[in-house]
Amino acid sequence: MGLVKVNDKIVTEMGYQVKPGDKVWFDGRLIKAERPVYILLNKPKGFICTTKDEKARKTVMDLVAKATDQRVYPVGRLDRPTTGVLLLTNDGELANKLTHPSFGARKVYYVTLDKVLEKSDLDAIKNGITLEEGLAK
After folding, report:
1. In a domain, 125, yes or no
2. pLDDT tens across 94-133, in order?
3. Is residue 112 part of a domain?
4. Coiled-coil stretches, from where to where (predicted)?
5. Domain ranges, residue 3
6. CA nearest 40: which of 98, 105, 113, 103?
7. In what order do the strands lie in the sheet with 84-89?
8. Structural domains counted in the chain
9. What is the C-alpha to C-alpha distance for residues 67 and 90, in angstroms, rounded to an integer?
10. CA 120 – CA 122 distance, rounded (Å)
């Protein structure tokens, strides 16, 4: 009991709302609020959208290592050979709103084809393409 203090007062109420400027202590240690960090990266080919790779391949984290001392995470992903804009942040609420299907965030992809687009290809695209996240139309 009494592990959490806000402005030198013990807090036992579940769901207590901390306000900007409040000093929060847990188990005798001052908790510092993390400032939100947003990094827009133009991801080049050859980098994986993950924080760590067990095969020691290049990750987007290698590209932003010197941009902040805060721990950030890629929001969504682009395949290794894909280039494009990628958001990295420590703002979990924003990341969830952008990636969880229930929020309906719209994604737009621009592609370059390596062949002429045939009618059968266009029909297949109109019917939807299966991605990890589900059917895309």
Report:
1. no
2. 999 999 999 999 988 888 889 999 999 899 888 988 876 6
3. no
4. none
5. 1-33
6. 98
7. 38-43, 84-89, 73-75
8. 2
9. 13
10. 5
Query: Which positions are catalytic?
Result: 79
Which among 72, 132, 97 is positioned nearest to 60, based on CA atoms? 72
How far, in Å, CA of 129 to CA of 50, rounded?
23
Query: How do residues 56-109 score in pLDDT, each as one tens digit?
Result: 999 999 999 999 999 999 999 999 999 999 999 999 999 999 999 999 999 888
Structural domain contains residue 124: no
Which residue matches tokens 């769901």? 15
Say yes or no: 43 and 13 in one domain: no
Verify that 71 and 24 share a domain, yes or no. no
DSSP string, 81-123: T--EEEEEES-HHHHHHHH-GGG----------SS---HHHHH
Helix (H) or strand (E) holding 60: helix 60-64
| Rama region for 7: left / alpha / beta (φ>0; ψ in -120 to 50; rest) | left
pLDDT of residue 124: 87
Please tell me the predicted confidence (pLDDT) of residue 48.
96
What does the alpha-carbon distance between residue 53 and residue 31 come to, in Å, rounded to a whole number? 30
Judge whether 66 and 52 are in contact, CB under 8 Å.
no
